[in-house]
Amino acid sequence: ALLWGMLNYVVLHLYGLLSNSSVYSLVMTCGIVGGGVNSLAPNFKLMKKFILLLIIPAGVWGVVNADYSSSFFMFLYMVLLVSVARSTSASYVASITSNIQINQQKKEMEKTVEAITLDSEKLKGSSHDLSDIAHVMHGTSVDMSNRLVDIEKASETIHANAGSISLAMEKITENVDSVA
Questions:
Q1: Nearest to 89 by CA among 124, 129, 40
Q2: What pLDDT score was predicted for residue 100?
Q3: Which whole number is the average pLDDT over 36-47?
């Protein structure tokens, strides 16, 4: 950066401010500075030094040659570029911070999804177990219902037989009474 800045100084000194060579040199310097602002955004201090080393020699040429308007322009350009550089650096840092947070949240979300999947598998297994138990209980219930029907039939048969036995006992008692 200092070498290019010194080259600008030499070109301005040899050809003057309004020559084609000087204008080309200054335009290329603006392009280099613009590229430096973007590429050095992660490191603001380095970016600021880069900008200063590129532009200060042209400003110094203006002061040495009493061309204060060009010096003022270079100073203003330098201040504006440092301001843009600060903003670009802040945007870069905010972007990196956002990406870090997004990646952390993504990892947390993946862990949560994994935990939910494991819980889902456990619930699926439990559901199958409960379904098997429900089928066994239904079979047992049907079995007990059939047994109750059999017990009810047996109870009706016992009741009918008890009635028959009671009638038979009454007849026996009558027959014993008539014999006596």
A1: 40
A2: 92
A3: 81
